[in-house]
Amino acid sequence: MPVQRLNHAVLYVRDVARSVDFYEKALGFRVVMGFPGAAFLQAEGSNNDHDLGLFEVGGDAGPTTAGRGAVGLYHLAWEVDTLAELERISTKLSELGALVGASDHSTTKALYAKDPDGLEFEVSWLVPADLITEEIAGAKAAIKPLNLPREIERFGATTPGGIGVSR
């Protein structure tokens, strides 16, 4: 059987407690296990043992250089089930000073944010397959700024996203 999905990600962070606090506030994750210098968090709607592992490397750790002349991971992306949830998270990320962008990828509506260590992540809502028109599919090549109120008006705040649907 082929790979089905990403089960969890693990990040090196400067301060585990600070990162746990951020991911709890920003995305509603909860700690399911930990030990000194490490924490394992689970998303509220997840069936995974954990979705995010955090390992502390200390306050003197330098910033990641990935994408700035070095290979490495650019970002992780988590899906939400409705545009209302994407809007709620957008507000929370803005309050935390973490929101760095919002893009309309036609079939995906995405927020981009950085955690306290500057590690970027995405939170996205996927247009349900049965709502993808030829116009929407044809616009995938262009990335536009996300107009969340317009997308909520277009698709509805509580329309379930195409979570887990191949694009």
Sequence-ordered SSE layout with sheet pairings:
Blueprint: E1 9-13, H1 16-27, E2 30-35, E3 38-42, E4 52-56, E5 76-79, H2 83-95, E6 99-104, E7 108-114, E8 120-126, H3 134-138, E9 144-145, H4 148-155
Parallel strand pairs: 1-4, 5-8
Antiparallel strand pairs: 2-3, 3-4, 6-7, 6-9, 7-8
Task: Give a written overview of the molecule.
- By secondary structure, the chain is α+β, with helices and mostly antiparallel strands.
- 23% of the residues lie in helices and 28% in strands.
- It has helices at 16-27, 83-95, 134-138, 148-155; strands spanning 9-13, 30-35, 38-42, 52-56, 76-79, 99-104, 108-114, 120-126, 144-145.
- The strands form two sheets. Strands 5-8-7-6-9 form a five-stranded mixed sheet, covered by helices on one side. Strands 1-4-3-2 form a four-stranded mixed sheet, with helices on one face.
- Strand 6 and strand 7 (108-114) form a beta hairpin.
- 21% of the residues are buried.
- The mean pLDDT is 94.
Give the class from helix and strand content and strand pairing.
alpha+beta
Strand order of the largest sheet: 5-8-7-6-9
Quote the average pLDDT: 94
Largest sheet: 5 strands, mixed
**Strand-residue fraction?**
25-35%
Secondary structure: helix percent? 10-25%
How far apart the termini lie comes to: 20 Å
Structural Rg: 17 Å
Overall morphology: globular
Question: Number of helix segments?
Answer: 4
pLDDT < 50 stretches: none
For the secondary structure, the number of strands is: 9
Q: Can you write the helix and strand succession as a string?
A: EHEEEEHEEEHEH
